[in-house]
Amino acid sequence: MGIPRPAMGIPANAAADGENDGMASVSTRTPEAKARVRRAQLLVYAGRNEVAARQDVHLRRGIIFHGRLGAVEAAGLRSRGFTGALAVDPERYTKLNEQPPRLISDADLCATEQATLGVSAYFAPSFATQRTQASLLSVLEDGASFLSAVERTGASAPAYVSVVVTPFWLSEGLDVLETAVRDFARPIAFVFAAPFDPLGSQAAVEGALRLIQASAGAFILRCDLSAIGLVAGGAMGGSVGASATTRHLGMPLRNARRDRSSRDNSLHVFVPRLLSWPRGSTLEHLADDLDVFVCRCGVCQGDSLLRFREASRAVEAERHAVAAWAAIADAVLGDNDPIARWRSVLESADNAYGELEADGVALGRPGFIRAWLSVLPA
User: Fold this and answer.
1) In the CATH hierarchy, which top-level class contains the domain 16-250?
2) pLDDT digits (tens, 9 = 90+) for 360-372
3) Of 58, 68, 94, 150, which residue is 20 to 30 A from 335 by alpha carbon distance?
4) DSSP label at 185?
């Protein structure tokens, strides 16, 4: 099982001749676009490597490990005979404040290491982009060296240059980044970064779609369920994080102080009908018979998700999360009209929050739900 290789050039549903009216097109009605969406894959972006590696649902879906420890875990899986989709994200971009951008001096070594693992996709060891065009171009130039190194290995799997997209690049820097992505004309893996949800506003979703449709093949690294919409809207593939820290790249809040004494260590519980991962602590006082928490994924088979209020069920909760979001992704991306199906899923979740609120239950609706609804055609 592999990840589709990007076709060079702008995807079929992107604006013609590079023109853009500021609003990304999200049509998937052409035969080419429909075929691309059906080939696309959403993998698990591993959160805790030792847990993800031994879960059957993760292995069936395919896994992206990250960092040096992730590379070791990936090598262990291959040595035990795992032949499914697997990749490693070097994630050097996590040092967001590093100045100036460092050059990739080990492109050949990184490409060779990933080739040895038999990866399903190659990801460049990119550093973070700063708020300057020079920084962005440096990352793309170094990434091109990595892509050339991958080609020298004779690899058949697709290769991507990782580009961190902070709120700056989805606002005042969007036009510069969009032009650079289009001119680069090579595949890019986008990593959306923010203190909270990077795609929690209409402008952010519109910007993300513009970037994806400007690229010569896009992949979405470490994302939440917005990855489904982005694949439906033009990306070649993506990944959903298995933990809160891998569902986007976090950024520090200014003047923020951590109060470790009040830290919430309860489980993040994925609720399919709400498209979110509320903490188990927020579910403690809810009635056990609430239908919205009944899950029919392959792990739960009709059981209530409220059982995950118990921290001892962490492994089962992780298996459930992957099985449940994968079912949603497959239903959307396998539909004859993925964009319409994605909108329907979002509307259902929005309505479910409304019903809970009417009953006096407030869990906090994720911003991405209404952000996507404000962008998608009705």
Assistant:
1) alpha beta
2) 998 989 999 999 9
3) 58
4) -
